[in-house]
Specification:
Layout (H helix, E strand, L loop, with lengths): L1 H19 L5 H29 L2 H22 L4 H13 L3 H19 L8 H9 L7 E2 L6 E2 L10
Antiparallel strand pairs: 1-2
Helix pairs in contact: 1-3, 2-3, 2-5
């Protein structure tokens, strides 16, 4: 039954994340959700470490809650990555809660990459997006259906509707 709840939870958050893409720009949404994922991952490390070392029931409940919050934030920005469904059980048996430190390192690197590499593309023309990624003006060569001459489109190099 937990698997069905998890699947439903993941699907709902993935669709909400897809819907949020239309409302919130991608870069701020990614940064916000990755901050949430990082913070809940730190909480997950602490609560599982305390649970494993002391057997505290409240630490175990906190760990379960952190998993759900982590997954919710993760699925809002990234949808599902099914690799973790196969790798996590093996890694948990081998190294236990220390697996979450590995995820924390990945989250730090990903957060840095999101901040410095990802550019906002919402509302830009394809030519402007090309400039953002290539750093130079993109010219389109189109053939005029009227006079069979080649031209580079409007004077500013962008196609307008």
């Amino acid at each position: 039954m937990t698997t069905l709840y998890s699947l439903y939870f993941s699907l709902v958050h993935a669709f909400v994340g897809l819907w949020l893409t239309q409302i919130i720009n991608r870069r701020p949404r990614l940064l916000g959700t990755w901050i949430a994922v990082f913070c809940t991952n730190v909480g997950l490390i602490l609560s599982t470490a305390v649970y494993e070392q002391t057997g505290s029931k409240s630490a175990g409940v906190a760990a379960v809650a952190m998993v759900w919050v982590y997954n919710g934030a993760f699925f809002l920005s990234c949808s599902s990555i099914f690799f973790t469904a196969y790798a996590n059980p093996v890694a948990m048996r081998s190294i236990g809660w220390k697996l979450y430190r590995f995820y924390t390192a990945i989250l730090v690197v990903t957060g840095i990459l999101i901040y410095f590499v990802i550019v906002e593309t919402r509302g830009y023309t394809l030519q402007k997006i090309g400039e953002l990624f290539d750093g130079k003006r993109v010219h389109l060569w189109v053939k005029s259906p009227v006079d069979d001459k080649e031209s580079d489109g409007p004077d500013d190099g962008e196609i307008r509707a």
